[in-house]
């Protein structure tokens, strides 16, 4: 599901690729576009759940001391 662009600015933050895909998923979902709800309301309804979990795991792996050996999760 990652999106790669040739003329894209490099996001130096951790889990930047997941963050971008998660944001795009929420903003392009029918819940936001057609129904006019806020992205936070759509999250509570369970939309884009897979990317939300992956983003959480990536952020959590930053705090995990074992990640020094395993590396950060995500892209």
Automatic annotation (TrEMBL):
GO terms for cellular component: mitochondrion. PROSITE patterns: CHCH (PS51808). Keywords: Disulfide bond. It holds the Pfam family Pet191_N. InterPro entries: Cyt_c_oxidase_assmbl_Pet191. One of its GO terms (biological process) is mitochondrial respiratory chain complex IV assembly. It comes from the Eukaryota. PANTHER family: CYTOCHROME C OXIDASE ASSEMBLY FACTOR 5. Belongs to the PET191 family. Involved in an early step of the mitochondrial complex IV assembly process. This is Cytochrome c oxidase assembly factor 5. It comes from Cirrhinus molitorella (mud carp). The lineage of its organism: Eukaryota, Metazoa, Chordata, Craniata, Vertebrata.
């Amino acid at each position: 599901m990652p999106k790669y662009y040739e003329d894209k600015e490099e996001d130096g933050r951790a889990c930047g690729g997941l963050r971008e895909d998660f944001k795009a998923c929420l903003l392009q979902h029918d819940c936001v576009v057609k129904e006019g709800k806020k992205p936070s309301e759509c999250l509570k309804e369970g939309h884009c759940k897979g990317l939300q979990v992956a983003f959480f795991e990536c952020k959590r792996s930053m705090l995990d001391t074992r990640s020094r050996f395993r590396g950060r999760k995500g892209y």
